[in-house]
Amino acid sequence: MANEINLKREQHKESFVSGIIRQNPLFISVLGTCPALAVTKTLEASFGMGLLFTFVLVCSNVLISLLKKIIPEVIETPCYIVIIATFVTITKMFTNAFLPELYSTLGVFLSLLVVNCIVLGRAEAFANKNSVLDSLLDGLGNGIGYTLAICLIGLVREILGTGMLSIGKVFTFIPVYSLPILKAVDGSYDFSMSFFSNSAGGFIVLGLVLAVINAIEQHKKNKAKIALRNEMKKKLHEDDPKPVYQVKEAK
Amino acid sequence: MNDTVKKYVRVSLTLGLIAGIAALLIGLTNMVTADKITQNAKEKEKNGLTEVFTAKEGTSYTYNEEKDIGTFAYIQKIWIVSDSVSDIGLIYKTSGKNAYGSVTMLLGLSGEKDLGKMVILENTETYGQTLQDNYISPYNSATDKNNAVADVTCGATFGAKLIKSMADEALSDYLVRIK
User: Fold this and answer.
1) Tens digit of pLDDT for each residue in B42-87?
2) Which of A86, A102, A109 to mutate to test the interface with B (most CBs of B within 10 A)?
3) What angle do CA B128, B97, B93 make, to 5 degrees?
4) Cβ-nearest to B33 among A71, A94, A104
5) Which residues of B touch A78 (CB under 8 A)?
6) B76 by DSSP, 3-state: which?
7) Structural contact between residues A56 and A153, judged by C-beta atoms closer than 8 angstroms
8) Does ipTM exceed 0.90?
9) Residue A116 is part of which domain span?
10) Which is nearest to A48 in space by CA: A147, A133, A121?
11) What's the whole-model pTM score?
12) Pick from B11, B30, B101: which is nearest to A72 by CB?
């Protein structure tokens, strides 16, 4: 009984954690790149997109998991799209009403969440096979992972593109604050490159971040390989120690 | 009932149930948000009007909406802008669609045929921000707006073409009105 509880707890933990880093939808699976390039001009917009994305993913995962037993296999995908579209519409309405600046900033990319491959992918690969709680945790984990990933790209692009970091422009309930990083307030120096605010800059930043992540991964793999090789050598040496040669004088 | 009929009934019922849940959720959300969305749109329009013609410090303009403006392809509303002494010009609210989405904007016209600022109220085009960055912002910051329009009417983007069509209609109407 205790083992079963532990197993379930482990499964819940795995559902939540895997999407954040190990199976990060953007950096590892390279899914959902369209909004990741289009709305990541600023950190604030990226964070807003991440929050809305997480909401849609969690809600659709939960509803799909609830209805999984009654949805016939032949109409699975249309049903999932209707469910996702419902939550995207709800999100759009709430954003338009209560966060109009975020709504204008995200524009058509908010509507495009309906066809986002991560949301549909999680529905087909996870929510229709697992329990409601696991689906909720999976949606939350993937949502947090995606939010962190696009926030990282947004952070890099905003600093390089505008030379500063601003808050309060999209979330208007926060007081506006700008922190100059690559340019002086008095204009004495300005190292910002507006190129990074454009779409091409987005591609380059995403490419660089993916390259760094792959390099780190590769380094870890190489390290593990070397450690394994050394261990095997050591083991071989222990199992079959070198023969001791006797030297005899030749007659 | 044979198996095929059962299958069809099941599919129909499931689709009906999901459509019902979707309708219920969207309907409830609409009840909560509709008023706020209308209020936001009105506020945006009101703020946009003050942006089109910037009043001198210490003065303010009044905006009188014209009734029965007739039927147009793009023009939806017209306001007469005046200060305490005389009329300053007209502000047109225009709205149009192309294959990439819709654009709603305010455009000011004054004097002989001087263009004022353009303020975008809604832009659902895929390349919405490109239009703002490459067209509207350079246009609004140009001192000579008539020539600024000549510089950017190259048809480089579909949004720019739509904006030009809307501005052309407003300008034609303005020229008729000031005769």
Assistant:
1) 999 998 998 888 777 777 888 989 888 888 999 999 999 988 888 8
2) A86
3) 85
4) A94
5) 15
6) strand
7) no
8) no
9) 2-197
10) A147
11) 0.82
12) B11
